[in-house]
Amino acid sequence: MVMRLGEQIYDLYLKPWYEGLENPAKAQEEVLRRLLEGYKRTKYGRDKGASNVSGREEFREVFPKTSYQDLKPYLERVMEGDYNILLPEPPITWAMTRGSTGPPKIIPLTETHLREVRMCGARALLNYALRKREAALLEGGVLNLNLPSQVERIEAGGRIITYGYSSGTYAKVNPSLGSLSLVPRQEEIDGLGGGITIKDWRERFELVYERSKDVDIRFGIGVTPVMVSFARYLKRRHGVYPKDLWRIEALFCTSVAKIHQKYSPILKALYGGVDVVEIYSATEGVYGQQLDDFPYISPNYDVYYLEVETGKEVKMLYEMRRGEWGRIIISSTLFPRYDI
After folding, report:
1. Tens digit of pLDDT for each residue in 48-97?
2. Structural element, H or E, at residue 176
3. Are the beta carbons of 200 and 160 closer than 8 angstroms?
């Protein structure tokens, strides 16, 4: 099956993830070393003393956990053009969060970050095809139920910056994977405008229906509540459910908690007994995805540095044991020790 999937694709997308799950301690050491090289190139990192860090204890001491509000003054400087104050490379674009856990945040997206999102975002789908031992699954259409990527325009540092929701932004940057392609194209979604009123969503859903009704749709991917709303719209407007139109194999669901407990039964009823595959993603990154039939996500230990603050101590995520709970702290090419 690896040969049919393509050794190059397997080695690039899946092998590092699998190896990270086999030996998370080694993977996390390598990630920390790589991230520190980037932090050393930023003023933020130099001021904190990134050059003096050789291990995780020093990393925690030198870089206290930080939040979006803590970083906001730095991000404002980045938006004005002074990217090196926080980032090792300039942002290509910006994206906004949905505000599901508080006020919307505006996040810079660099070339490295986008490459990592593309790689991690594809893992759930590629791993699913590998598990099903059916490379033909990677042909056909994918329902594009993402939010618009162009919503706001602001002036900063003498420049006009246009940004929108991260789901649409990532869809626009990564419109296809092999023979799979998004239906409709993100540019068509954006063409309807950036509104999120009921009227806006009706127009968006109607566009998705018109573009996809005669296409061989194999998957859906996106914000989970939007998938539910789209299915109910089809029933109200056209008298059909998604299961009446397409032979969808799986839905790759993001952006909310309790996907399997709360949403999976609803989605299976609307879309026809599909497999529901969870992805843990945010505007700031794609941190893990479902590995097998068990309703859990498996972290991308090869890309992000993942710690947990339990209340008593700070531990690596892979050191957590059954029954322990905590608050995750994520280090990435964008932000060090970020309390998401």
Report:
1. 999 999 899 999 999 999 999 999 999 999 999 999 999 999 998 899 88
2. strand 176-177
3. no
